Amino acid sequence: MTRSSLGVAIIGDGLMAKEHSMALRNVRPVFGAGLPEPRLVVIVHPDEARARAAAEQYGVERWTTSWQDAVADPEVDLVDIVTPNLHHRDVAVAAARAGKHIWCEKPLAVTADDAQRMTEAAEAAGVVTLVGFTYLQNPGLALARELVRRGELGDLFSFTGFFSADTMIDPDVPFTWRTDRSRAGGGAVGDLGSHLISLARHLVGGVSRVAGLSRTVVPERVDADGVRHRVDNDDHTLALLEFSNGVIGTMQASRVQTGRAFEVSFVLTGTRGAIRFSQQDSHVLEVSLASDGLDGHGFRTIELGPGHGRFGDLWPMAGINVGLHELKIFEAHELLSAIASARAASPDFREALAVERTIEAIERSAAQNGAWQLV
Amino acid sequence: MTRSSLGVAIIGDGLMAKEHSMALRNVRPVFGAGLPEPRLVVIVHPDEARARAAAEQYGVERWTTSWQDAVADPEVDLVDIVTPNLHHRDVAVAAARAGKHIWCEKPLAVTADDAQRMTEAAEAAGVVTLVGFTYLQNPGLALARELVRRGELGDLFSFTGFFSADTMIDPDVPFTWRTDRSRAGGGAVGDLGSHLISLARHLVGGVSRVAGLSRTVVPERVDADGVRHRVDNDDHTLALLEFSNGVIGTMQASRVQTGRAFEVSFVLTGTRGAIRFSQQDSHVLEVSLASDGLDGHGFRTIELGPGHGRFGDLWPMAGINVGLHELKIFEAHELLSAIASARAASPDFREALAVERTIEAIERSAAQNGAWQLV
Amino acid sequence: MTRSSLGVAIIGDGLMAKEHSMALRNVRPVFGAGLPEPRLVVIVHPDEARARAAAEQYGVERWTTSWQDAVADPEVDLVDIVTPNLHHRDVAVAAARAGKHIWCEKPLAVTADDAQRMTEAAEAAGVVTLVGFTYLQNPGLALARELVRRGELGDLFSFTGFFSADTMIDPDVPFTWRTDRSRAGGGAVGDLGSHLISLARHLVGGVSRVAGLSRTVVPERVDADGVRHRVDNDDHTLALLEFSNGVIGTMQASRVQTGRAFEVSFVLTGTRGAIRFSQQDSHVLEVSLASDGLDGHGFRTIELGPGHGRFGDLWPMAGINVGLHELKIFEAHELLSAIASARAASPDFREALAVERTIEAIERSAAQNGAWQLV
Amino acid sequence: MTRSSLGVAIIGDGLMAKEHSMALRNVRPVFGAGLPEPRLVVIVHPDEARARAAAEQYGVERWTTSWQDAVADPEVDLVDIVTPNLHHRDVAVAAARAGKHIWCEKPLAVTADDAQRMTEAAEAAGVVTLVGFTYLQNPGLALARELVRRGELGDLFSFTGFFSADTMIDPDVPFTWRTDRSRAGGGAVGDLGSHLISLARHLVGGVSRVAGLSRTVVPERVDADGVRHRVDNDDHTLALLEFSNGVIGTMQASRVQTGRAFEVSFVLTGTRGAIRFSQQDSHVLEVSLASDGLDGHGFRTIELGPGHGRFGDLWPMAGINVGLHELKIFEAHELLSAIASARAASPDFREALAVERTIEAIERSAAQNGAWQLV
Question: Nearest 5°: phi and psi at B194?
């Protein structure tokens, strides 16, 4: 790799392949010309026709059906893993051993032990890693973190988070890898709850103990070939959390929450203030501070703008929604910046491993009727 | 007691004395002349000056410093208990033994065992009892219950509730009976959480197991005489709930939630729909039903109106906020109607006892670091 | 009239008779014993059965079918006019001439000229008058006015208000006096728009010029006897306003706004801040001030509480919805206080006359296709 | 131009140059490979250093300081005009005469007469034109239009719209071309109000008459060189609208609305329903329909998803915010699709001219103290 170009292999052809390919290309127009220019060298899918179509659609130079070839390709500096969770481990370990930087979608792996192997391989190789806990890139999070850091909230004591989607409330939504524990790991708690844990860890710190209850609301689904399967991971999980620093919390992760299409939200509370975040209200952060002058301390909406995180690289005026699409550009910028300056990216595999350990503890708890588990 | 008049003794002189005295008088203008007319016979406070002032302000015929006298007064048919929690038990047991109907503010007692004694005494005496879980009187709850009953939500599986107040976030708020376990029982969980449990029981059914974590965020407060005390009940409690029918839930009860002055809200979710209630949005119930025609099943706001609960007795048009004041009139109407037709009122002592048992289980759990407790 | 008792005649038996009777009785429990105690002496309806039923339901001592008798009754100190608009003028003029104080529902009269006669009669007699522009009593308005007075909003320049109801969107809602110009005066603009103008005048000042466009969306309705009538007042009016001090504004008054059951809201903007009021969010006032510290000046919600207007007389904690019912108690308190201290009440007939002049100018404009009219 | 490649000249280097360059590149990853591939041939800025930097940042092959050269360039098929409004006319007319397709930012020109010349030149040349009224590309608008088309709202009668920004409320924001009538045309009404008129026309139809009032709240500003100028276009405009089909409306266009950073919202009402759109709530459209089953017809939130407009090309799940960034991709897709199939794009110059005529009528009215103007 030279300063001026960074060869990328994209492993997978789904929604996140599309998003990552655009995000990588959009970094320069948004942030200017100071970073290595990503070059989309090769895209991988085991099905030849899909691999070829993906290359054409996403503007990738070559395609292959072998991820091993892509990882080994000398023109590839960065391996971008956007496969079903099942494949994350083997691709990432191989990429690390080949000395390639790694961008991996979340959750990091099907099991925390797999995540640990990936983390150890990457750290042994000294490559830059980044995991797609995208909401961390929201400018509102940057403001939230700043408020926490400056002590504006006083001593934190409570975190309550919701990731509420209704993507699987319809029983006719088919059985896929996402509803299959062996390929996905956890259901709602792994896919969606992991985002919440990443947010909580970012602002509060590590979770030490958990108790969780799960329900699989649609117990069986039919796959694309008409075969009926039992769903063996959760549709809906509620958990009680205790953080290492004494903060307490609850979370809901649901893929069957009628009425909430795709909401990520939390309230973080301290002795002198509170913040409320909601991705669907992505143009604002809600803040309530004891130090505010007027009586009646409800929340105030801070319209996010150029002063908050990377917002100003996109827009010169405040109050514009920052969608997932833009967050992915920010995420790609974090990755390219880290590679360019040979620093760790955030959140990296080590952080994602901690998220996985927390999620797995919730799953263990839920499997034991809610018995408390150390993380 | 005759059909046309109902003698009332009000025990206590605080906020709820004011609210109850008005509510009792307002029943007839709102609901018409079919019910016994409450006659405010006597009001009680141990301090003579306060008792006299209360009688004058609330329009009560007489006053006394002895609740025993008031309870024994032959002109009194209904004993209305609005004292600090500490006194509920003795007054209620005496009233029941004297054959008086009882309206008691919540929580029912300092301990569940006290609540049990009250319940047994009232049931033995066959008197009508009503407990002030006021939010149950919200017309939105009537609609919610009707939707549940008709199966519009499918099979219920999740309840997440918040009672979030900031009344004690300021460390300078003084130490009172509310922050003293021996006089109040639980803190936020007892005072506010009991409302949530009453709502959950009303819509979902009984809670079988709980795990709770509590924090006393302001550990010491100074009383009105300048004496510093340790606060020995909770400011902020989070709990995980499992209901007898398999529904799972979380709840937050807080008197230190910066940004939320006084919000009671919950989401109840089933396989075919969900409802969202918030007392601060008291003019609506939010509903999301799989059976709705258009794609994209977000919540819809049902503007509450004459078709919902007792709303139509107040207003002929929809969309008017129904405040606590109005809810207390509805509650008084429930009580007078029950007395007039010699039926049980709702919620009665038996129901409030079940709430108390649940709250006490959460407190036990919190005292044991969250260990699961059977209710 | 003595200090300790104030005889009241209620003229009319509808919704507002109910509300006023309760409000008058509730003043003392809420505000204490310092004011004259209202005594409901007589209620009037031309139909004998209705008059008698109203007396019984609202707890009024006597009834009569003759408003003239009630007004002349020596035990009557205050005449409370809650009839259809058509009768306001004659009752009020007679009451003034008899030296009685007057509480009159809004709008003040069917025509501004009638309103002027009422105002002149009352001023000549030196009686206290109060008109039921109830939203002025909202504690949020007190806060809004204080913010304006202190200059926190800088120089005001814009007012945009909505009174949006859907009470008549259903074409099967019958023809009544409200849809009949000769008995009601204006339709939505008179009934609902007058509230907006009273709010605007309270905060901004007088309106000097208006241009309005109206639509009668349901052109014919059938009355209770099955007779079809043309509706000759407006269902939906939009107007452009210019105030004497240069502020500009728009307003919508609608009784056919699908989706908005009963919302009164406005935004008032100045060079250094803005406020947003909504009666359906009656527990808060939204405020945005340039002087707030953090970047991103969205609105903040001020949870209304004891520091705001008369809120603290009702509740010791913030964040409770203040419904129309409570606002009427505040309004009755304003009236009784004014009578007790022999000062003018607010808003009085003179103020309501100015509202009427403004509304009538909008109606004239609408009748001339929007041509500008001086107020 | 061949089917497979479309040469683009970008005229201007500001925010919209960035957005357009990304949008053009992102069309293929989002929509697939069926359309001509945009090739960014040349970018223009009169300042050589800025032109060069823009070419590097946005990935454009060449740069020049002469827009005439760029327009004449035989490799250029599409001229993309993202300059200050002042230059739109000359560039567009030249581009049309050179037979180039044109993408032009809004408003179309400084004056409606200029807009007319542009429109005539483009129509004479038969080129495809598209104007950046971006909010029309929102998937919620597609749903709104479909609901109107199917008659779900009944007969439309009211449109009330707000474009409320606070970008210039700070008096220290400098004087630029936007605050200079000779270079920008209208102020808030031209820059922001034109969006509202485009939305209103899209859903309701043409505006026939207008009355407007404007205020320039910050009358003088200092430019980047320290020179003080009078601001000669509006900061804040309110208008009353009458549409050709009898619908009435109001609008606010403001760049000084404290509390609203950047909100575009409207309510459209008919005899059987209403819709509420807000760009800041871009994941939903709010709808209220008389045909909905339950009583209490408040608004329901339709979570936008794959069934609505081009949403499904971006995301497979509903409820994701669709920001300006994504809307620009949709806009670029509309343009490329129109070019590929030799049809008109929407909204084209003819439509934008009608918007300009409406805006200019509002400005004329405001200059005459609100006197009604025909459009």
Answer: -60, -35
